[in-house]
């Protein structure tokens, strides 16, 4: 079959790498893609939110399956757009409807959904600019630290953890009155701070059946020891030792099942991936947030552990046949380290030549923010540039294989965290 994959990050390179392994993959197109996807697929110069051009590409290339990587086109209603046209209405798409994507597009919507379906999550209230006084009064009654979340999409930057009441009040005013995150903070969710260990659980669903994919832990902050600014993710580890069978059965019973059932009860069309950000609080799972796509860089650690045909999984989601799909997962560990441009997540320079090893033994190099000059030279074109994933029978071997390859990659001012997975190693030991 012919597949069109939307996106340009490390997640999409991992998707393309896995899809291309299937004997059922005839032609694979990625829009817009990156220098890594160009090696295994045909890149199309189309933006992920250019719905008309996407439709044209679907028809021109006789696409049989559309796979949506990032959240933006889903939140903006790509699935609904294609369903309204008689030429594309029968196209199987991996990605939820606009209403389903509101689970990520609006923090308030998702919290209300959790409340309605009795899904464990942190206590919260939502405020807009007209309710600023109520919001400030509410803050005075809460325990510190307290979490403030922009309601809409804010490129992973719309969550603030405030340590003092003064900081919380100032931040609430900045978000609501000064539009710190633009339209995204027209409403702000004020939420109880949960303590525990964070992890990411990924669910594939066709709206009726579901399969729980390997779980992962990601590392969001730029500095070692989880210090400094939040980023799009500096690394990931899968599996996660604190997500044992007992904990994961609680996740399935208390979170996954009521979420899938809730979508059906509320008649919310949902065919795609559901990324559940969780807190393990003394052995009990609480939902921090829903995302309506796979995570990045978790995807780069999760997909190498899937041993069954990944394209079959995607097709089963898009055609509502997931009940017949048998998911096979390797017991091996996979660890991902993200290499970034110096200065990220602040300002950074682009266009530096990247040196890659000829042979990455026991590791996979996924491209994210890469591009090629007319001369063919590989350069950094984004903040997060390369994700390296190593595998091993245990976490130690996996990390060793990852860093062996990381240390062979370089460009001017590159940076990576050397402590990915070390916290879990301590728990194991």
UniProtKB/TrEMBL annotation:
Key words of the record: ATP-binding, Ligase, Nucleotide-binding, Purine biosynthesis
Upper lineage: Bacteria, Pseudomonadati, Bacteroidota, Cytophagia, Cytophagales
UniProt family annotation: Belongs to the GARS family.
Ranges where the ATP-grasp domain occurs: 111-319
Lyase is among the record's keywords: no
EC assignment: 6.3.4.13
One GO molecular-function entry: phosphoribosylamine-glycine ligase activity
EC category name: ligase
Catalytic activity: 5-phospho-beta-D-ribosylamine + glycine + ATP = N(1)-(5-phospho-beta-D-ribosyl)glycinamide + ADP + phosphate + H(+)
Source organism of this protein record: Algoriphagus formosus
Record-given protein name: Phosphoribosylamine--glycine ligase
Pathway: Purine metabolism; IMP biosynthesis via de novo pathway; N(1)-(5-phospho-D-ribosyl)glycinamide from 5-phospho-alpha-D-ribose 1-diphosphate: step 2/2
InterPro entries in the cross-refs: ATP-grasp (IPR011761), ATP_grasp_subdomain_1 (IPR013815), PreATP-grasp_dom_sf (IPR016185), PRibGlycinamid_synth_ATP-grasp (IPR020561), PRibGlycinamide_synth (IPR000115), PRibGlycinamide_synth_C-dom (IPR020560), PRibGlycinamide_synth_C_sf (IPR037123), PRibGlycinamide_synth_N (IPR020562)
Pfam families: GARS_A, GARS_C, GARS_N
Gene this chain is encoded by: purD
Gene Ontology BP annotations: 'de novo' IMP biosynthetic process; purine nucleobase biosynthetic process
Keyword Nucleotide-binding among UniProt keywords: yes
């Amino acid at each position: 079959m012919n597949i069109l994959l939307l996106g340009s990050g490390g997640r999409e390179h991992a998707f393309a790498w896995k899809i291309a392994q299937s004997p059922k993959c005839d032609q694979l197109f990625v829009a817009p893609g990156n220098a890594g996807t160009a090696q295994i697929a045909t890149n199309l110069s189309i933006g992920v939110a250019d719905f008309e051009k996407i439709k044209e590409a679907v028809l021109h290339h006789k696409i049989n399956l559309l796979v949506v990587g990032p959240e933006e086109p889903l939140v903006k209603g790509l699935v609904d757009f294609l369903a309204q046209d008689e030429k594309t209405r029968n196209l199987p798409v991996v990605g939820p409807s606009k209403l389903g994507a509101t689970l990520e597009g609006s923090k308030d919507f998702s919290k209300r959904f959790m409340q309605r379906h009795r899904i464990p999550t942190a206590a919260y209230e939502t405020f807009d600019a007209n309710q600023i006084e109520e919001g400030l009064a509410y803050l005075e009654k809460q325990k510190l630290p307290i979490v403030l979340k922009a309601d809409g999409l804010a490129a992973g930057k719309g969550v603030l953890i405030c340590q003092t009441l003064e900081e919380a009040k100032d931040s609430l005013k900045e978000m609501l009155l000064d539009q710190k995150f633009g339209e995204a903070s027209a409403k702000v969710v004020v939420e109880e701070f949960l303590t525990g260990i964070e992890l990411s659980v990924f669910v594939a669903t066709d709206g009726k059946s579901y399969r729980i994919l390997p779980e992962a832990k990601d590392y969001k902050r730029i500095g070692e020891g989880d210090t400094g600014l939040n980023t799009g993710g500096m690394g990931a580890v899968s599996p996660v030792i604190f997500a044992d069978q007992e904990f994961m059965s609680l996740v399935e019973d208390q979170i996954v099942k009521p979420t899938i059932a809730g979508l059906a009860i509320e008649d919310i069309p949902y065919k795609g991936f559901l990324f559940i950000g969780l807190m393990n609080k003394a052995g009990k799972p609480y939902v921090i947030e829903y995302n309506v796509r796979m995570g990045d860089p978790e995807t780069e650690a999760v997909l190498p552990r899937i041993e069954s045909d990944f394209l079959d999984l995607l097709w089963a989601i898009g055609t509502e046949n997931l009940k017949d799909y048998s998911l096979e997962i390797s017991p091996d560990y996979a660890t991902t380290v993200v290499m970034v441009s110096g200065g990220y997540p602040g300002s950074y320079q682009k266009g530096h030549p990247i040196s890659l090893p000829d042979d990455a033994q026991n590791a996979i190099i996924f491209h994210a923010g890469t591009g090629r000059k007319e001369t063919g030279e590989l350069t950094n074109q984004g903040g997060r540039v390369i994700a390296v994933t190593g595998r091993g029978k245990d976490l130690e071997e996996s990390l060793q294989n990852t860093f062996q390859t990381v240390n062979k990659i370089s460009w001017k001012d590159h940076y990576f965290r050397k402590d990915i997975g070390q916290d879990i190693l301590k728990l194991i030991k």
